[in-house]
Design goal:
The structure is a homodimer of 226-residue chains. Chain A is built from 11 helices and 1 strand. By secondary structure, the first copy, chain A, is mainly α. The longest helix of chain A is centred in the middle third of the chain and has 25 residues. The interface between A and B is large, with 60 and 59 residues. Chains A, B: One of its GO terms (molecular function) is transcription cis-regulatory region binding. Chains A, B: This is TetR family transcriptional regulator. Chains A, B: It comes from Streptomyces griseoviridis. Chains A, B: Keywords: DNA-binding.
Chain lengths: 226, 226
């Protein structure tokens, strides 16, 4: 029933346009009553995004079930991947919806409010993990926003490719950028061994006026993390 | 006239509530006709945020007038400060609006769309500056989102303090965090001198398993930039 309503709605949105389609049109095509529609969807906008509530609930549950020793930036990146998975489960539907959302300002506003809820879910988890640390809420808010922006940059590129490119690889790459930027935002890892082997020592020589990012590049490659 | 309409609207919003106040109530209190209201404001929501259009235009002009050699992350941070300045110009009005916006979902949605437009203005400038670089649009989108999140984290803290705290210092601190995180996202600075003096050489010795952020801390202090 729910799937039939979504299918009927999208057929009409694409044939006639979103604004020109009423809930009555949708229920007539699906062969059900108005009350059935509103049992599943509070409004016409909600039928365009039928899976976000479930995905938000999944994300919240995933974050709540985080092991205490998991690295928090990695955890929110993994949580963001749940959204990608939802889109990638049904590429042609996701691409159709993307085109529709771009054309209809009301749907764009709806989407912004959904994105905001994902961002707040990630930020709430990070605020909890960073509680008591200097700038804990600042770091949490900035990292959550960066994760969402990186995810959406890769997701939009995939949608513009008509769902043909490798969405997973693009999102991994984008989230990797955020993880590298916020390495310094992480809580201290477990202490390193007290007496290092000679093998484990790296010497970097740099000019005092070298730009810091260039030095970090050298370091990453010396440490074998580039 | 415009200011009188805003003042009348806020008096009624605070006395009766936002939803309970009509445009007719506002124009009656201000002593003008409905047509005057709509000459200044497309809708009742717009009277709540009377200065965002001007501020968006100021931000766009500021970014368009950027010198070619300005460091781009610093430039978008300075652009974000224009928003803070607008709020700080009139603390009591900003605090009243903050309380109102928190209570009315429609205004919250409106605010999200405004925030999104600021973020896109910053991202458009960065995309242009990063054009042709690897991951240029990804970096632009992530940095724009991080700048907006940091600005808003400090702005909200100031609004919650009833406009009493030092808004400028809080925003500077928040934006400084973003600038430090995205140092590696900057375009290459002008080339350094080819033959460094011995004085200008820094040697850092680290364990291979040292966390990168800890090494960067050491480096920053060795380079005299901490």
């Amino acid at each position: 029933m729910r799937e039939a309503l979504v299918a009927a709605a999208f057929r009409l949105f694409l044939e006639r346009g979103y604004e020109e389609t009423t809930v009555d049109d949708i229920v007539a095509l699906a062969g059900v009553g108005r009350r059935s529609f509103f049992r599943y969807f509070p409004s016409k906008e909600d039928v365009v995004f039928p899976d976000h509530e479930r995905c938000l609930a999944d994300m919240t549950a995933f974050l709540a079930a985080s092991p205490a020793d998991v690295e928090p930036v990695r955890r929110v990146c993994d949580a963001a991947r749940l959204v990608l998975r939802m889109y990638a489960e049904n590429p042609s539907f996701s691409v159709q919806r993307y085109r529709l959302t771009k054309r209809v300002p009301g749907l764009r506003a709806y989407e912004l409010s959904v994105v905001w809820r994902y961002e707040r879910a990630l930020a709430a988890y990070l605020r909890d993990r960073f509680a008591g640390r200097p700038d804990g809420t600042l770091r949490a808010d900035v990292i959550a926003a960066a994760v969402v922006a990186a995810h959406n940059n890769a997701l939009r590129a995939w949608l513009r490719s008509d769902g043909v490119d490798d969405a997973g690889a693009a999102v991994d790459h984008a989230l990797g950028y955020v993880q590298s930027a916020f390495g310094a935002g992480l809580p201290a890892p477990p202490p390193a061994p007290a007496v290092p082997d000679a093998e484990d020592v790296v010497v970097v020589v740099t000019r005092r006026d070298a730009p810091l990012w260039r030095v970090v590049q050298e370091l990453e490659s010396a440490l074998g993390r580039a």
